[in-house]
Amino acid sequence: MSENRTSNRWVVVVIFFFFMLLHQTDKLMIGSMQVPISEEFGMSNTQWGWINSGALIVATFLYPIWGYLYDHYARAKLLALASFIWGATTWMNGIVRSFPAFLATRASTGIDDSSYPGLYTLVADYFGPNLRGKVYGILQLAQPLGYLLGMILALMIAPMIGGWRSIFYITGSLGLVVAILIYFFVKDMPRGKAEPEFDSMPEMTAFKFSWAEARDIFKKKTMWFIFLQGFAGVFPWNVITYFFFAYLEKERGYDANGILFTMAPVILILAAGYFVGGALGDFLFKRTRKGRILISSAGVLLGAVFLVLAVTTPIEAKNQFFIFMCLTAVFMPLSSANVIATVYDVTVPEVRSTAQAVEYFIENTGAAFAPIITGVIADATSLQTAILFIPSVAWGLCSIFYLGALFTIDKDHAALRAQMAQRAKSM
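^ thats the sequence. predicted structure below, dont judge the formating
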């Protein structure tokens, strides 16, 4: 990789970090505004579930389309388009004045939510396998930090500048600004450029999408376990993202300041967990190809244990609740960067966006209904019951699926490296 490309890749990381930070702020801050938005439109928990599931359902169906486009066309330009769509749909969401229109425009924000496979695969062509976990961990710091920024905007800034609609106008405008930055400053890389087999090659043959290689994604047993854990693993995140603030306010009696000062440290710990998980995954991956899977498995098991302990803590024991939530935040994100890196550890460069998109499609097929299911359970019982039940079951299943991947990852990784070595010899 040339010196210019080497320095430029960190510019790309910085731009992508801000894209993810602001996009996640825009996407996740609605959870902090459940109470004022629900009151304005007179929504029940079930209707609120539909508001959030709508965007997830739209994103689910568009993942394969985005994946196909990313593997065929310039990823940077498509990411600029996604950022523009984010800005435009958020503005529309702030303008509407009725529940049906709000439901429809909120669902439209899911169009750009399915654009991440191109971002991750482009980064994979800037950084080799031994660095990807850490880089993905850095990028994914943006998700909880965006959650925290959204919480601050929703709880502190919105009341001072005219309410939740004003915040939507701000984040929508920032989406348009980021679109311009990506369009002019992010350049594409040849697919597979950062694979170690091609490291010393000044020029390389461009790998083009192949339906045969796309079908081979489903022949890799590791990918099936990744798909299964993805289906189950996103349920807890959607439950916590869209209902936890209402749970703190309505069932644990926290006011806005109490929520902010309790959750801000938790979210900062969660942010650090993304990088720690990616770094630990890279560290163990250099010693055993099972390394990323081991870190992921430990994360879901311990995250589930501490979340159960937190939610079952008596309401008056606020310090105990806070400690258990901090421990939950340590382990919850450990698998995230490692799952993405594992997909690229077993798939060829020209179909990685498709592979990632398929994984996200399967994730969201189940997770899109998590807010609806949570809302129904919460209306029938309580938010505590919903938050306790769904993540516990989902993470328990994930631990079983990761166990299966431990038995397949070595073979699938070796097959990819042999295939890359063969390509390098033929160039």
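The mean pLDDT is 90.
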